[in-house]
């Protein structure tokens, strides 16, 4: 059974169709990449899934429940977690408190106390490697550290599905590789499904995702296994236009795809 | 359980301060009035702190709660003192009315908070205050602009001796209790999910919602609590103690200013702040009333401005940063 | 008979609305350019009222002369408060500028109380009246309306035609963009604040032309509330919208007063003041998406 199912979801802003009849399915434990050029509607799609926006048409079904009209704050306890492209820490609170907030209001909301949450927070802070900053105010972290904290905070929610929005933006290749390894580790250890969204860092998706969904101008273009999706001629055209560099693209992507097994 | 004890350490200086104030007022002749005034400001500051310090919303019309509390008590006494069998229960009814009226205002503000933030919210709250005051006068309810005078009715119901004790001691003592209660609730909220939720909402409401926080629920809890406490102060320090109420006396924005001064001086969002601020402001006001009556606000208005510009964290805020890393840190919050 | 009364009152309301509108333009200008809400708005109106009163009773000068005096005083106050307080708070959290402008208002009240005492004062311009079929209107009110509209019109022309006006509009649209184009944004901030305060103080003069009684240090609070309702009605950042919304507000206010006066056992004036709050509440109800939509 699908964990997350979108049925013909359409989101309009006035005359602009940001998301155009998108349907997709994500199963438990899957690792999916959503890829698309700038302005393709990826972030809007995430916003519809996490409840920041309501779609004009279509349905969002999570874990069997229709959450299309459900307020955003009710989706977290169901197991829907999210990180943001530009991190949104609670700046005046410490890293520990930030991550603990994730635990307090996520899937464990009814069962944990404040002290429990702080303990859970410690575990995830260690996992992302931020132990040294535990008591620092979240606002003082560097952008990469803030991203890591957001991941810890989202994980502390113990979600079933984690939406990661450009988690690797602004990172150098070595960090990206580390992050890829890290995300795979999370998926296995926490047993959650992860949707990682990127614009153009193919390295991040090639080595990571089992399946890739390509979005362009609000509509779904391709939904296939990673190698297939990334080498599909339509995808190449969307990114590069009619270009003779097709072969260069193919060889670049093949390199990334092959590297993932090494 | 072992962890909860140190958690509540910051309450110790607060309660110690209140205890010392009480002892001084009780034992030294002529000091009770002054100490009662200080307690009044500490209580108000502590109550307002729950509103602003926790939610980040500024309620410029906070005085509405105090005024409604006063009216609650006034209405209770005016209309129920005829039932002499109720005895001291009249006061209880007054308190219930006070809390009921305060709840209405708090829920209204929570509703407004759904649509407005920041400056707009602040001004809308002034609107509630002015709107209510002119409505009472315009629709001539609750005594209209002539207000209610019920001292006589109170004496008739309870007897002169009891009423004397109430107005000269118990009313002020209740203010101490409210101040202590407000401090405790402040601390309790800060340490519980409510506090964490409100911090998140304050910093980034949309991100908080995605994290699973029902922003409106927690704002409402804070508004209600703060409103009840403010109404309690009004009911006791004005309603019970003075024996009369006029709309022009109670729906006065200046009392909100005083709350702001108290909290700002001491340090917004801190526990000890309102106590320190209340003491500084209360003492200054008392002293100024003696040498230059009617000038307090003239002096304090620029002081507010100066504090905002130069030292927005207030006395306790500064103290906290100086004491960071020392053992005393856990007592100051 | 009732309808004559209503029409008469509505006319008065329209005229007063012009004054309200001008007063709110100052608020919208400051908010639109600097993103600061002047919570002490009503107190600056009070300043204008006292300027008029003093000039009339002490110096025998007509309120028309008080207008430019009020503008100068207002702009001076505006520059003063901007450079001492507001400028430091632009980057600070919203709360601080709220509290600061609030405190500024209180300071003005207390200084006024110090100088003039707390009593209610007034003056009588004694210009005579015009008689229309539906009502008689004191000439001073007509002057007030003409004054407000003229100033509003002048502002419109100034903003659209002059370099400085355009510079201000550019900062309202896009602060950084304007800066990149060579606009001295910091000076524009100061100027806009000063003009906004100047407008507000001037509207105090015009207001007393309309209501030459009840002038006291604490008169401002109610006008802050009304200005806010009008600003919300007309668009928080649009000075022109504010003017027209002011007209509408004046109409509603006086219409309501006429109706309230019919109800026995109430005090219609107080109820009318309370109306502003209910209007605000109603506005909030029907615009659930928040107020920045208009």
How many strands appear in the DSSP assignment of chain A? 10
Shape, per Cα inertia axes of chain A: globular
- Tell me the major beta sheet of chain B: 2 strands, antiparallel
User: N-to-C SSE series of chain A?
Assistant: EEEHEEHEHHHEHEHEEHHH
Unreliable stretches of chain A: none
Terminal CA distance of chain B: 21 Å
Number of helices of chain A: 10
Please specify the SSE layout and strand pairing.
The complex is a heterotrimer of chains A (262), B (333) and C (294).
Chain A: E1 2-13, E2 16-27, E3 31-35, H1 42-50, E4 57-62, E5 65-66, H2 72-75, E6 80-83, H3 95-105, H4 114-128, H5 143-156, E7 161-165, H6 173-191, E8 193-198, H7 202-206, E9 211-216, E10 219-225, H8 226-231, H9 233-240, H10 246-259
Parallel strand pairs in A: 3-8, 3-9, 6-7, 7-8
Antiparallel strand pairs in A: 1-2, 1-4, 4-5, 9-10
Chain B: H1 4-7, H2 11-27, H3 32-55, H4 63-80, H5 89-115, H6 118-138, E1 148-149, H7 151-158, H8 160-191, H9 193-203, H10 205-210, H11 215-242, E2 244-245, H12 247-250, H13 254-266, H14 273-291, H15 296-310, H16 314-322
Antiparallel strand pairs in B: 1-2
Chain C: H1 2-34, H2 41-57, H3 63-89, H4 94-116, E1 129-131, E2 136-138, H5 139-161, H6 163-173, H7 175-180, H8 185-210, H9 220-234, H10 239-262, H11 268-286
Antiparallel strand pairs in C: 1-2
Helix pairs in contact in C: 1-5, 1-8, 1-9, 1-10, 2-3, 2-4, 2-8, 2-9, 3-4, 3-8, 5-6, 5-8, 6-8, 9-10, 9-11, 10-11
């Amino acid at each position: 059974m699908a964990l997350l199912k979108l049925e013909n979801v359409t989101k309009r802003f006035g005359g602009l169709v940001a998301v155009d009849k998108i349907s997709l399915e994500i199963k438990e434990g899957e690792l999916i990449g959503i890829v698309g050029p700038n302005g393709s509607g990826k972030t809007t799609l995430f916003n519809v899934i996490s409840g920041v926006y309501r779609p004009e048409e279509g349905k969002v079904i999570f874990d069997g429940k229709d959450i299309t009209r459900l307020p955003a704050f009710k989706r977290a306890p169901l197991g829907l977690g999210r990180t943001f492209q530009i991190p949104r820490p609670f700046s005046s609170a410490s890293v520990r408190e930030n991550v603990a907030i994730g635990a307090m209001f996520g899937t464990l909301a009814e069962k944990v106390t404040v002290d429990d949450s702080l303990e859970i927070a410690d575990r995830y802070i260690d996992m992302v490697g931020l132990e040294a900053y535990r008591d620092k105010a979240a606002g003082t972290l560097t952008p990469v550290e803030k991203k890591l904290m957001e991941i810890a905070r989202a994980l502390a929610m113990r979600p079933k599905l984690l939406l990661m929005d450009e988690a690797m933006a602004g990172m150098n290749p070595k960090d990206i590789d580390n992050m890829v390894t890290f995300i795979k580790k999370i998926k296995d250890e926490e047993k959650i499904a992860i949707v990682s969204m990127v614009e153009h860092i193919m390295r991040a998706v090639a080595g990571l995702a089992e399946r890739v969904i390509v979005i362009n101008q609000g509509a779904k273009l391709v939904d296939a296994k990673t190698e297939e999706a990334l080498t599909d001629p339509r995808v190449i055209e969307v990114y590069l236009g009619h270009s003779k560099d097709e072969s260069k693209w193919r060889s670049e992507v093949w390199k990334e795809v092959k590297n993932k097994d090494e | 359980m072992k962890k909860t004890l140190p958690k509540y350490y910051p309450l110790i200086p607060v309660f110690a301060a209140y205890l010392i104030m009480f002892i001084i007022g009780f034992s030294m002749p002529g000091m009770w009035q002054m100490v009662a005034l200080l307690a009044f400001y500490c209580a108000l500051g502590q109550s307002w702190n729950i509103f602003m310090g926790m939610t980040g919303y500024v309620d410029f019309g906070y005085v509405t709660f105090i005024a409604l509390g006063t009216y609650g008590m006034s209405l209770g006494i005016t209309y129920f003192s005829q039932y002499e069998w109720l005895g001291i229960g009249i006061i209880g009814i007054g308190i219930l009315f006070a809390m009921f009226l305060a709840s209405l205002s708090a829920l209204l503000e929570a509703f407004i908070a759904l649509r407005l933030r920041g400056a707009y919210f602040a001004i809308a709250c002034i609107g509630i205050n002015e709107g209510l005051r002119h409505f009472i006068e315009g629709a001539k309810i609750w005594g209209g602009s002539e207000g209610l005078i019920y001292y006589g009715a109170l004496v008739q119901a309870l007897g002169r001796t009891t009423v004397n004790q109430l107005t000269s001691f118990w009313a002020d003592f209740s203010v101490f209790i409210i101040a202590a209660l407000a401090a405790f609730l402040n601390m309790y909220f800060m340490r519980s999910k409510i506090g964490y939720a409100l911090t998140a909402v304050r910093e980034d409401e949309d991100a908080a919602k995605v994290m699973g926080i029902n922003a409106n629920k927690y704002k409402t809890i804070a508004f209600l609590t703060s409103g009840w406490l403010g109404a309690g102060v009004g009911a006791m320090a004005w309603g019970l103690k003075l024996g009369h109420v006029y709309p022009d006396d109670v729906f006065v924005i200046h009392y909100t200013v005083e709350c702001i001064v108290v909290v700002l001086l001491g340090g917004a969002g801190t526990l000890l702040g309102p106590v320190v601020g209340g003491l500084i402001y209360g003492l200054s006001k008392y002293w100024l009333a003696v040498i230059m009556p009617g000038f307090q606000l003239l002096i304090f208005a620029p002081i507010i401005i100066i504090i905002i510009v130069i030292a927005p964290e207030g006395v306790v805020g500064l103290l906290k940063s100086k004491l960071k890393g020392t053992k005393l840190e856990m007592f100051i919050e | 008979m009732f309808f004559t009364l209503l029409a008469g009152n509505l006319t008065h309301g329209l005229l007063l609305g012009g004054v309200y509108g001008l007063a709110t333009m100052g608020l919208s200008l400051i908010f639109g350019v600097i993103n600061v809400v002047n919570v002490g708005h009503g107190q600056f109106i009070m300043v204008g009222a006292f300027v008029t009163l003093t000039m009339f009773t002490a110096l025998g000068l007509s309120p028309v002369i008080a207008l430019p005096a009020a503008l100068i005083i207002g702009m001076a106050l505006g520059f003063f408060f901007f450079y001492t307080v507001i400028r430091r708070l632009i980057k600070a959290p919203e709360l601080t500028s709220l509290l600061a402008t609030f405190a500024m208002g209180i300071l003005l009240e207390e200084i006024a109380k110090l100088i003039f005492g707390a009593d209610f004062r007034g003056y009588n311009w004694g210009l005579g009246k015009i008689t229309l079929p539906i009502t008689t209107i004191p000439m001073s009110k007509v002057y007030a309306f003409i004054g407000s509209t003229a100033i509003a019109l002048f502002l419109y022309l100034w903003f659209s035609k002059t370099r400085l006006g355009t510079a201000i509009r550019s900062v309202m649209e896009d602060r950084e963009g304007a800066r990149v184009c060579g606009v001295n944004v910091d000076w524009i901030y100061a100027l806009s604040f000063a003009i906004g305060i100047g407008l507000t103080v001037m509207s105090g003069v015009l207001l007393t032309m309309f209501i030459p009684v009840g002038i006291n240090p604490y008169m401002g609070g109610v006008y802050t509330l009304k200005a806010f309702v009008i600003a919300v009605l007309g668009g928080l950042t649009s000075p022109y919208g504010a003017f027209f919304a002011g007209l509408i507000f004046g109409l509603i206010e006086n219409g309501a007063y006429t109706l309230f006066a019919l109800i026995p056992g109430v005090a219609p004036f107080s109820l009318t003041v309370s109306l502003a709050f209910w209007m605000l509440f109603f506005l909030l109800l029907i615009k659930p998406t928040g107020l920045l939509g208009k």
